[in-house]
Amino acid sequence: MKVTAQPSADSLLLLLDGELDASSAVLLDTEFNKPDLLSYRKVLVDCTKLSYISSAGLGVFISHLQRLQDNNVKLVFFNMQEKVFNVFEILGLDSLMTIVPTQAEAVAA
After folding, report:
1. DSSP-derived 3-state class of residue 8
2. What pLDDT digit, counting tens, does each position of 41-99 carry?
3. Which of 1, 80, 106, 107 qualifies as a cystine partner to 47, CB 3.0-4.6 A?
4. Is the pTM of this model over 0.90?
């Protein structure tokens, strides 16, 4: 799993590449724990190359969601593959988190 961060003026784009499992969840958690994360209006998560997500990977997003919301930082997922989206949907996370089809919609969200 590779996590690439691309900051812009008001948002942080996180590109996820590979399988987000227990071992790689640590990398993602490190990104979410960086102090400057809360200085952005949005954290956009590009799931184009995310091929798998485990409960540990989901746990990273869930554990940081409230902190982001408390600091008015919107978490938006986009370009999610169907099998990854199904995991979010089965667990009801699609109603807790913003998931949109494209990057343009993520920026506009």
Report:
1. coil
2. 999 999 999 999 999 999 999 999 999 999 999 999 999 999 999 999 999 999 999 99
3. 80
4. yes
At the second CATH level, the architecture of 2-108 is 2-Layer Sandwich (3.30)
Give the DSSP H or E segment for 27.
helix 22-32
- Taking alpha carbons only, the member of 47, 49, 39, 44 closest to residue 13 is 44
Among the listed residues 74, 67, 66, 69, the one whose alpha carbon sits nearest the alpha carbon of residue 98: 74
Average pLDDT, the chain: 96
Dump pLDDT digits (tens) for 8-44.
999 999 999 999 999 999 999 999 999 999 999 999 9
Q: Residues 6 or more apart from 43 whose CB is under 8 A from it?
A: 11, 12, 14, 37, 68, 73, 74, 75, 76
- Report residue 61: phi and psi, to 5°: -65, -45
Domain ranges for the chain: 2-108
Residue 52 in tokens: 């798998």
